[in-house]
## 1
Amino acid sequence: MSVTREKIMELGEDLIRTRGYNAFSYQDISSELGIKNAAVHYYFPSKESLGTSIVKTNMQRFEEMVENLQSRNFDEWSQLETFMKIYVKSNRELKLCIIGSLGPDLNTLNESIRSELKKMTERILQWLSCILKNGLEKGIFSFKGDPKDRALLIFSNMVAGLQLARILEKTDFKAIHQAILDDLKP
Amino acid sequence: MSVTREKIMELGEDLIRTRGYNAFSYQDISSELGIKNAAVHYYFPSKESLGTSIVKTNMQRFEEMVENLQSRNFDEWSQLETFMKIYVKSNRELKLCIIGSLGPDLNTLNESIRSELKKMTERILQWLSCILKNGLEKGIFSFKGDPKDRALLIFSNMVAGLQLARILEKTDFKAIHQAILDDLKP
DNA sequence: AAATATACTTACTAATAAGTAAATTCCAAA
DNA sequence: TTTGGAATTTACTTATTAGTAAGTATATTT
């Protein structure tokens, strides 16, 4: 794998998560990396190919985290906390998550990014409801209603939590983070 | 008030809520309204002036709703439901709310839009926590923790609920809507 | 009737966008 | 030592962007 290619993807993801998909250009990337505009097009012929790769990589990272958690036999509470730590870190770095960044731009994105984003969102919600369901059965969690609905509520708390923290200029994510966990305590 | 000016603001808001701030242009507005680009600049010299006006109008509409609810002596449950209906309607119209649309673009917006957006977000959260606090004291609602934190959770559910519904291509907002209300039932 | 203000259009500018074709540099294998 | 491919730059195109200066038609006021 090319180092330049990796740097482009890393910077592209940063730009999407700080400024949004439609607010960054290949120039932003090339000037920051000290290369020319055309060099970015060499690795990613179109902006949509770059966007699609970034979302795919994000999903791979999520899958790696899931596998890691399973292999270490973490209980549901720890698994949820590990997942939530990703958002705590995002907030500290003043970044949104990729889903919360690209979601509002969805109607301006091509089918390839859209479907990857949908796939990733469905996968996260599926994983989260599974954790919640198992945790509920084991008595680790306590909540009303269907685990699927609960997963949607918790996930939307995290996605918009980052956005609202940015608007409100809150550097800590504690309020939402703690409230979600308190809600789930038996 | 000029009809053209109102049409520009209405269309501008629609564009922000469907495609995002950085994805719409004065051309989009002028061609749709059958006027020239410069005519839009006549009413709103800069895009930031248009954006700021749109956010201010949104906040005015919110304040009008609040006053209306208070004058009619609605109980807390009905007040919350009325507020949530705005989001149900947004979802039906395939639009995000203005806060969820502009939040991710915040770093690309000028100070004027930013501060208006912050003011509006703070005002909504303040109102919502007040409703929750009063409803809790009257026994209309039941929830754990501070009303302020609860307001943040519920509001983030609505903001990201619209975004996730768009990504997942869900035309109904029922799951989130119902789960929020069920959670608050005594 | 003359002056003024409102609501635009015409006709532009300068900057930036994504994207491309062709040339070039550089390194490794044959 | 030549050949070939990978990684880039050069130099460009076409389209779109926000924004502006100057002009015009229409209505309103003086």
Note: The longest helix of chain A spans residues 111-138.
## 2
Amino acid sequence: MFLQIEFESDIPIYQQIKNQIIRGIALGELKLGEDLPSVRQLASDIGINFHTVNKVYNQLKQEGWVVIHRKSGVMINPDLNVYNNKQYIESLDELLKFTTAEAYLRGVTKEKFIELIEENYNKYF
Amino acid sequence: MFLQIEFESDIPIYQQIKNQIIRGIALGELKLGEDLPSVRQLASDIGINFHTVNKVYNQLKQEGWVVIHRKSGVMINPDLNVYNNKQYIESLDELLKFTTAEAYLRGVTKEKFIELIEENYNKYF
DNA sequence: ATATCTGTTATATATTATATATAACAGATA
DNA sequence: TATCTGTTATATATAATATATAACAGATAT
């Protein structure tokens, strides 16, 4: 897979994997219905314990990103519909409060910030 | 102060305090040069241990948000200049990668996302 | 049938992050 | 002298993160 883990990061390994899988879906690098490696395979590839991957897959399942069939394995949810529940919007709103505040004080203009957003969104289709 | 801590949150208390102080500066609720409560006073107000507040103040000092004079106390840095070092831009960029990806997949359009950014930025002066 | 692959569960351990609890110190100030 | 600052030291508790072994049940290929 395309996963790139930074072991020295302050972001937990399981979170890095979740982030990159979700971004992989948005970028189209992971197609809906596509199989993911088995928990043991991915753990082996990355060089981590399989429980960590198992935790990732279960959380992704819980949030609707993947479906798990016992023994056919894990695949990106072919009927992906994780659309914005009010709870998600609230958490996004909360995150942007503090992210924009710090960015502003660090001299990142509104225009520059929006440019960063557009650069990202333009990669999603 | 205006701090509102959620003890059940998955965001650590010290991080919540940092977030709200930085946002307080951006909103103008905290003026440059303004005194902050002493570590013991703020801890008492919130109902937490003073070491937690001490940790916050030291990190804020480390990052340039406040200055600490032994015994005059802690104040918002009157010469605030935390402007964007390359390291910060990189971390912001990394954060936006995953934030925009999930937002996109959850049905938050680029226009809606930008609207959220503008709502926040318009509060800063 | 047997071996091998899946996810799953159980148990145990190690490390780090977060938060608290007490105590004491040194400098400044009233 | 008493009281306020930030600071430091030590100890403890809890939770989050990650690993290590082992075993189980269902599916599949040989």
Note: The mean pLDDT of chain A is 95.
